[in-house]
Amino acid sequence: MTFTWGVATSAYQIEGAAAEDGRTPSIWDTFAHDVVGEHGDVACDHYHRMPDDVRLIKSLGVDAYRFSVSWPRVQPGGRGPANAAGLDFYDRLVDELLGNGIEPWLTLYHWDLPQELEDAGGWPHRDTAYRFADFSKLVFDRLQDRVRNWQTLNEPWCAAYLGYQHGVHAPGRRDFGAALAATHHLLLAHGLAASIVKRPDNSVGLALNIGTATPHTDDPLDLAAARRADGNVTRIFLDPVVHGRYPADVLEDLAAQGHSLPIRDGDLALIAKRPDVLGVNFYFGQDFAGRDEQGNTHDALGRPVVREIQPDAPKTAMGWPVTPDRFTTLLLRLHHDYGVPLAVTENGAVYDDSPDENGYVADEERTAYLRAHIEATLAARAQGADVRGYFAWSLMDNFEWAEGYRSRFGLVAVDYETQRRTPKQSALWFQDRIRSGL
User: Fold this and answer.
1) Do the domain assignments include residue 90?
2) Helix or strand or coil: residue 236?
3) Mind listing the pLDDT tens digit for each residue in 167-195?
4) Is 383 annotated as a binding residue?
5) d(CA 43, CA 221)
6) Looking at the domain assignment, is residue 64 inside a domain?
7) Name one GO cellular component term (predicted).
8) 151 annotated among ligand-binding-site residues
9) Catalytic-residue membership of 155
10) Is 38 annotated as a binding residue?
11) Active site residue: 155, 308, 357, 375, which one?
């Protein structure tokens, strides 16, 4: 079985050129300017430096590059015909990748909803799923002859819940009902787009952020909290896509709280587009408890407590625990419960990088993180999980969403003032690891 090594990015985080060649604002342009205080107007200036960046990718020795397409660059406003200049950029990118022996892995949606569609209701509005299908067809019609690996959505949980319930990501809304509607309509968008782009000779899937929902103890309350966490983050997305149904316990929990998903007849048949490869974005595992820190079992609204507890483990600079052993467990669980081929489409860490006078970063902690998680990936593969690739997040330092520019995930350091790229120790280690094979 072939194993693919790659690196990954997303459009808004690296491209810049936010108002060039017909591109219009996305919800992240608005949120970044209004809330974050830093933005992707220039970012890594990849839009103008793309050929050099592709040569940088090639120098790492990877097989593939995972990138996303900017919806408002290709279809300004989220409606109507394609913007030729926007599509031309991705046409050149794909040709540049293939010319350098790098396989394109294309993600259609990595959170940059056109602002006009948010103004019309956003993901809680059913019509947005159909607008996404139209956009997907524009991209597919141009690139289908050269792109074989397609992912419809990246981390729809983040788009739905961080964006519409918690308000910490674009568009910054705080409405649980809106987040539930967004969940269903994102899944509908996946199904509609997958129907458009699927061909016998290509691979279509989606990428989900998945952790491990482990009970903190064997207390029945902790077991129930872990079940709820797993249902609300993992199974609510995977069960309809793979099995054609929402988890019964999740629907029952929602009904007990007076909530439901806006499911219409025929929706689940549209959503159930089993991934050829499921993208797994993993950063850390979590424990869950059914009591809050004061011992209460229900919150102020009468809902059962689901309290996240971080495992006792070393932490990254973002405070995330380093849990590679749980990664192996997760991959095996996904293999056994869903039976779909897997690829690690994001995995990486933020540490406080300190470049020397030449811009070089001796990032030993990130190197150790990558080593441990690649070993965990291969351990799951050795135990029978059908894991077909590993993509490091991220190719280079970039605009890290609500964190702005202070959080650096990159294998390659970026000096944002000069746009100079300098491979870090982790990049050189990754290059050597790929050369060593499996």
Assistant:
1) yes
2) helix
3) 999 999 999 999 999 999 999 999 999 99
4) no
5) 45
6) yes
7) cytosol
8) no
9) yes
10) no
11) 155
